[in-house]
Amino acid sequence: MRRSSFRRLAGAALVFAAVPLVLSGALLAIAMGANRSWIFLAAAALALIPIAWGILELRLYAGQVRRLVQAIDNLLRSPCADDWAGMNGELGSLARSLARIAPQVRNLVEETRHEMGRREAMLASMVEGVFAVDAQRCVTFCNSSFAKLIGVSRAAVEGIPILKLVRDPALLDLINQVLSTGQSAKANLQLAAAEGRLFEVQVATLANAPEHGAIAILHDITEIERLERVRKDFVANVSHEFRTPLAAIRGYAETLLDGGLDDSVNRRRFVEIIENHATRLSNIASDLLILSELDGGRQPAEPARFPAQAVLDTAVRTVEGQARARNIDLAFEEMDGFEIFGHRLRLEQALVNLLDNAIKFSHPGGRVRITARLAGPEKGRIVISDSGIGIPSEDLPRIFERFYRVDKAHSRAVGGTGLGLSIVKHVVEQMNGSITVESDLGAGSRFTIVLPVLPATASAPDGGEARNTTFTQSS
Question: pTM of the prediction?
Fold first, then answer.
């Protein structure tokens, strides 16, 4: 028989034996004529025996309960098997049952902690803003992206009503709708707290029950919407640019077919108009192809080092005939010898575009000046300035956009496609440079290109000395 069972039986036997002993002792004492006080003392002494035994049992029982409580407290801290040893009876059975399930509980808790940590890391690293609210619309969780969007610290957000953080009625209505209907919802919203940026907001209930709250994910689509607008504008502009020359080509071709070929006075002029518009279409298609290559990161060749002077010489020779025809004074001014690392053909094309614009938008007899100076140990500055019609200040921020023209009629009259400056900006930025423009309406414009440069060398690729002279081309 187990020890605890024996102790309980012994205690019960002692209690049951004490009662008749007390009664028989009292009767014997009365029969012998003993004093009542002695009778009372004898009865009390006999009664204290089971009481003392019960107190001892309670102390032992309380000790086992304390050990059991301590073992349960240590349940998640990998308790030792000794924490459960030495317990008997019903408490011992409970202790052994807890000892058996303790490893399973610890594994479950560890898995839960690991899963919560992983989800926390995933939410914290998301670019999208995420926050959750309870049924009372108080924030119960948010990630760093959401806190950054609304300009507060993450620790200060939780527990605050969402109304105090985001005051956009559309977002609050979306959350209320989800909490009242239990159905997920999605909408594109602008948030004033995020400086008016546009977000795709998705809201769903937590645990599929509105009373548990809702979770919202905010995906920033501001840039996507901007690119979509640019794409739509680009398609519209391309369609418009193609429509005009195609309409002219078709109209004059129909005129020729309808009898214009027999008109010896006008047929040559009709063909020249068709040729001019076909050339315009070819130029637009060529510029679009270049922009497509630049957008796709395609390069004509491997980058190499080359003297800035040599590229400027080639660009000037390309446009000198045009400058002569318009009686434009085209000249070099200050020239430093430095080398550039990049794509020579692309930079040459960008410089030709700038010089071509400077000549086209200058009055006959005007001037175009070119300088190339060092702007520090690792920077070179190329400046192309003219004395042309200039650019209004409100148009300056947009002149590098595709198909944007300040004076549309004049630009088309001189054969501009509206893509040249966009190509220039792409080329310069791909070479880790920058381009800026300054202009006074009616007094001319000044385009400045800043590029990373290599240490200066004394000779150009053709073997000639790098020049610091002035070249003038005028009629």
Answer: 0.51
Residue 109 lies in a domain: no
- Tokens 């909490």, located at residue: 179
**Does residue 110 lie in a domain region?**
no
Same domain, 89 and 189: no
Residues 83, 65 within the same domain: yes
Q: What is the CATH number of the domain that holds 383?
A: 3.30.565.10
Q: Is the pLDDT of residue 52 over 80?
A: no
**Following DSSP, what letter does each residue of 312-371 receive, concatenated?**
HHHHHHHHHHHHHHTT-EEEEEEE---EEEE-HHHHHHHHHHHHHHHHHTS-TT-EEEEE
Q: Is the model's pLDDT at 232 over the cut of 70? A: yes
Residue 81 CA to residue 84 CA, distance in Å, equals: 6
Among 217-226, 283-292, 440-449, the range scoring the smallest mean pLDDT is 283-292
CATH number for the domain that contains residue 290: 1.10.287.130
CATH code of residue 164: 3.30.450.20
CA dihedral 307→310→315→320, nearest 10 degrees, is: 150
Nearest to 355 by CA among 379, 335, 382: 382
* Per-residue buried b or exposed e for 245-281, using 16+ beta carbons within 10 Å of the residue's own CB: beebbeebeebbeeebeeeeeebeebeebbeebeebb
Q: Which domain holds residue 237?
A: 225-295
Last residue of a domain, one of 170, 189, 220: 220
Residues 286 and 313 in one domain: no
Range with lowest mean pLDDT among 67-76, 425-434, 438-447, 458-467? 458-467
Distance of alpha carbon 324 from its chain centroid, rounded? 52
pLDDT tens-digit readout, 318-356: 888 888 888 888 888 878 888 888 888 888 888 988 998
Contacts of 400 (CB under 8 A, 6+ apart): 421, 422, 424, 425, 435
Count how many Cα atoms sit within 13 Å of the Cα of residue 280 in the half-sphere of its side chain.
25
Q: Position of tokens 């998640």?
A: 76
Q: Is the pLDDT of residue 402 over 90?
A: no
Distance (Å) of CA 15 to CA 19, 23, 25, 201, 441: 7, 13, 15, 76, 117
Least confident of 102-111, 356-365, 412-421: 412-421
